Each structure stands twice: as C-alpha cells, then as structure tokens.
Amino acid sequence: MTQERKYIISENYKRITEKIENAKLRRDPSIKGDVTLLAATKTVDPEEILFAIHELGLSAVGENKVQEFLSKYDMLKGQAPLHILGHLQTNKVRQIVGKADMIESVDSLRLAAEIGKRSQAAGIVTDILAEINIGREENKTGILPEEAEAFTAALEEIPGIRLRGLMTMAPICNKKDEYYKYFCKTYEMHLDIFGKKTHNIIESVLSMGMSDSFEAAIEAGATMVRIGSAIFGPRIYL
Question: What is the dihedral sign for C-alpha 187, 192, 193, 198?
C-alpha cells in the first residue's frame, strides 16, 4: 500500500466523518443516538481496510457477496464487526453463520429460519436486520413497507436469530430531498415497529444511506450508514 493511497483514504475518511457530524447537527432535535460509519468494502484490498480500521478508527465493515466476505475473513476477523450487506441465498448461510457479526439483508422468513437453524447448531445467536424495499422496486430485494410490521413480528419468534432493526436501500434519486423522503418513511416505520414494545436489544439499528445519500439518511434518523466509494474511491472490477 503506497503512501499516496494512505493519504487519499485518510483525506476521504476525514471528509466523510466531518459530513456525518454536520448532518447530525441538522437533525430534528427529537432524533437521538449516534451514527456508525460502516465501510462497504466490495473490491477493496484487505490491507486498505485494515489501515482504515487501525489508523483512522473505522468501526465496522460490510461485504456484499459471500465469496468476497470469506476471501477476506481470515485477515479481518477480530479487527472490526463484519456485516453481510447483499442478498443472501439460503444455500450460502452455512458458510457465514458464526463469521458475520450481522446479516443486514434478511428479506424472507425462509432465509431467517435457515440462519436461525444454522446458528442454533453452532450454539450462537446471529444478529440480523430486516431489509425493507422502501421504493417498491421490482429489481431489488426486501419486504414491502406494508408487510414490515408482520414480518418483523415473525422474525422475533425464530430461535437462533436476534432482530436488531431495519435496513433499506433507497432508489437512485437526483436530489437530496428525494432521498430524504424515502429515508423519513423508513425512520417512521422503524419508530412504529421498535417503539411499540420492549425489545430484547438496548438500541435498535436503522441502516440506510450510502456514498451518494448518507447525509440525507442521517438527517432522517439513520443510526448506521454504508459508505464505500466515497472512502476508497471507485470500485475496481477485475
């Protein structure tokens, strides 16, 4: 890893964290809680990820694909919480249960049941987020908004998993205000679901917002943002 890359990543990270803090100041006073910066590290070299963790203070890492997650696991395990962000097939669950600290993309009871079964067999409980398709996009996974309350209630009955909150991906928008509307809807849903009853978690997670939309997500109430290219630069596909 060159000094130039260290400098670029450091400057990007500094700029992002400043924007996060400024976005928090623009929140409605009723929105409480901190914001976790999770680095989406698709195609990013483990050396650069470790640099961000140890030298810059990066607190969480997420991968989209199981294969890439596993290829980096031995180098990253124990260094920071590791999340699965992308769509997870049930036949891949056995490969990541016990390795992923959180699975953010749970979009069916079938998938949740498989995670629970594999987790119980391993003697652990796996933290998950319910994925919401807030834009109702046919090409994206996730539960439709009107199904969210029943879905999350069903998730809480499955042994071996622990529902920690919600995750969403907004449609691609041209303006910040458009992103903000989608994220506000998800925040309201999050409040409705997790504010109605006492859950077995200290603080629920609302994961939303990426490199092009994280400021709007934070202003709307996100507790976790998933940022990749804004930190590490454009993804390089081999």
Answer: positive
Q: What's the CA gap between 88 and 131, in Å, rounded?
A: 11
210, 228 contact by CB (below 8 A) = yes
- Say what the alpha-carbon torsion angle 165, 169, 173, 176 is, to the nearest 10 degrees: 30
CA–chain centroid gap for 167, Å, is 6
Spatial distance between the Cα atoms of 142 and 47, rounded to a whole number of angstroms: 32
Distances (CA, A) of 204 to 33, 112, 169, 195: 10, 18, 18, 10
Contact 21, 216 (CB under 8 A): no
Whether the pTM exceeds 0.90: the reply is yes
What pLDDT sits at residue 195?
78
pLDDT tens for 207-222 read 999 999 999 999 999 9
* Residue 147 pLDDT exceeds 70: yes
The rounded Cα 238 to chain-centroid distance in angstroms is 25
143: Cβ contacts below 8 Å, ≥ 6 apart: 107, 130, 131, 132, 133, 151
